Fold this sequence. Notes:
The protein folds into five domains: 2-115, Nuclear Transport Factor 2, Chain: A (Roll), CATH 3.10.450; 130-201, Nuclear Transport Factor 2, Chain: A (Roll); 217-239 and 251-358, Elastase, domain 1 (Roll), CATH 3.10.170.10; 363-539, Neutral Protease, domain 2 (Orthogonal Bundle); 572-707, Jelly Rolls. Helices cover 26% and strands 25% of the residues. It contains eleven helices and 32 strands. Residues 1-28, 205-210 and 542-554 have low confidence and may be disordered.
Amino acid sequence: xxxxxxxxxxxxxxxxxxxxxxxxxxxxxxxxxxxxxxxxxxxxxxxxxxxxxxxxxxxxxxxxxxxxxxxxxxxxxxxxxxxxxxxxxxxxxxxxxxxxxxxxxxxxxxxxxxxxxxxxxxxxxxxxxxxxxxxxxxxxxxxxxxxxxxxxxxxxxxxxxxxxxxxxxxxxxxxxxxxxxxxxxxxxxxxxxxxxxxxxxxxxxxxxxxxxxxxxxxxxxxxxxxxxxxxxxxxxxxxxxxxxxxxxxxxxxxxxxxxxxxxxxxxxxxxxxxxxxxxxxxxxxxxxxxxxxxxxxxxxxxxxxxxxxxxxxxxxxxxxxxxxxxxxxxxxxxxxxxxxxxxxxxxxxxxxxxxxxxxxxxxxxxxxxxxxxxxxxxxxxxxxxxxxxxxxxxxxxxxxxxxxxxxxxxxxxxxxxxxxxxxxxxxxxxxxxxxxxxxxxxxxxxxxxxxxxxxxxxxxxxxxxxxxxxxxxxxxxxxxxxxxxxxxxxxxxxxxxxxxxxxxxxxxxxxxxxxxxxxxxxxxxxxxxxxxxxxxxxxxxxxxxxxxxxxxxxxxxxxxxxxxxxxxxxxxxxxxxxxxxxxxxxxxxxxxxxxxxxxxxxxxxxxxxxxxxxxxxxxxxxxxxxxxxxxxxxxxxxxxxxxxxxxxxxxxxxxxxxxxxxxxxxxxxxxxxxxxxxxxxxxxxxxxxxxxxxxxxxxxxxxxxxxx
Length: 708
């Protein structure tokens, strides 16, 4: 065990040499990520991998350098790099075990999104075969004889409520035109054969806007025949003709699509075009997969082009629409519950399920599934708003107001502005919930993916339009739909993982708001307040995060975000030995904290600039935890300095020094109290700075900082 640990630490120490090179290059904040080139992406991957290895060792005790596989790396329009990792054990992926390392344009760490699973204990050799798992899964799904494709099976490590499992994931598909098409996903324990988890991955959704009337659509022509196929956007629309197994091309001889069967196709085609245009023109995204795909059917006029395909007239009286991983599919409705489900925000909703799958890939179950549905509603509404132009109206925030129950005027399937107005189905007293305290916790609806979407929908509505929440009494000042959508998209694309819950969504949107507008901006404050209003996280004070309370002398709090909750800001960080985590394993309070050291031969610092009134007591307090691999009881090899500096960074005083000699257990914090009364009436920097030598590393954790 000791040998393995030393090997892992040596690898990390070597990796830090790479970080040291990066740090020296960007010491003057030189922009490293400029063009998003392959060389820049490779650099981002190398830097991120070393950062994650250090973080994982410190926060989770993960010592195997092969635990992480890069699944995606990209450089965004703000020149920030985002590198996604899949956690593995013995080569097997860990379900919802993911992390994202976010780097600023100068290649310095911004923040880490951490969903890694610590202390996994499981035998990775299965007792059952994949074929055995498929047969067991079929027995758990009563409709298995109606499957329209052979099941797909792969092996995962799954963290259960009581223990870790080696599990086969069996994915089945029944798209047969029945009233209940489904894509069940069932996890079977590879040792015992028990079913340990399941959900339906058929991502359904419905929404409505006014039907679009006479519109212009892009089509193609071959000879004298026109096809409902847009070769520029690579979008095509096809006709099931109320069947389920065969699709047909929409054709026309004069490019005027006006027959009764064509009209649903026109709506779906127009909706797909407008959704594509919205994502491209507003967010710079080229379609569902950001590469004008995924393509399925080939174009009639050019067989080398595969089209992102919409399929209409699915089945008979089918009251839904769905995304199945490849296609958007729309039913005609039964004329009573729904009319054809091919309106603008339905198309936006369904295509957004595809975008979600290609970005965060939110698991379609529980809180992550409710966020999946909520984000699809949000961008369905934004597509409708984009296509219609102008400002939001009351109908913008309604889901299904035109296609849903056509004989009842003014109603809707869901209401983003007031989720409680939805028809109560008896899941909770307040279907649909709009506050976290009201959430549904049962097993129906994949654990409430549609029911609980109202919580996220209400949060977005408050960010965009503002208002006072009826339950919390919190008032939010809206920033407009355009800014709200930019924040939500950035959070989805870069800061969320498959297992993100409501708390994680709050953190992700705050990180996105920080990138776009700054952590002291009105936009950041609005996002934080909106999540607080719906019961997720605490409310900010004066537009900045509320510091975690700490016992301290009387007087006004001068430190902003002393609890490090949600983001690091307004603290300023630099160097390869200073880190921030928003959801760490060893906080003193809350979930966020800062930590220093971790590796050999590193330095780093974090500071906040503070104006100290003459009336202040000048008492600085914080909580400190020190862990170290040093065994000496006499020599201080690694040090943390608490300093006061002027606004230019010049040292005024060293208030205290801590070292490896102060080491304790990982979770043991002690409160420190220091006197800065000599700097009353001045504006200074309160700084924490680390210096680790080349021997065994020390880690210093700091949380709950207060100055009064």
